[in-house]
Amino acid sequence: MTTNDFIQHSNNDSNQGSSEKVGEKNAEAIERVGSEIEQPSGEKRLTSNVKAGGCAAKLSATELKQILAGLPKSKNPNLLTGIDNFEDAAVYKLSDDLAIIESVDFFPPLVDDPYLYGQIAACNALSDIYAMGGKPIMALAIFAFPTCDYPLSVASEILRGGADQVARADALLTGGHSIQSPETVYGLSVTGLIHPDEVLTNSGARAGDKIIMTKALGTGVSLLALKAALLSQAEQGQLFSALTTLNDRTLEVARTVDIHACTDVTGFGLIGHIHEMAKGSKLAARMNVSALRFLSSVLNFAKQGLVPAGAYSNRKSFEASVSYIKDLPLEVSDLLYDPQTSGGLLFAVAEPDSQRVLRSLADAGIEATDIGQFIEGIPGHIDVVIN
Amino acid sequence: MKKSLDLRGLTCPEPVLRTKQLIDDATVTCIEVLVDDEVNVQNLSRLAGSQNLSILKEQAENHFKVVLERGNQEQSHQHVQTKSAVKAKSNLENSTGTVIFISRDTFGEGDHSERAHDFSAHLLNLFLQTICQSGHEPRAILMVNGGVKLMDPDGPYIKVLNDLRDKGIEVLACGLCLDFYGLKEKVQVEQVTNMFAICEYLFSADRIISP
Question: Model's pTM, two decimal places?
Answer without folding.
Answer: 0.77
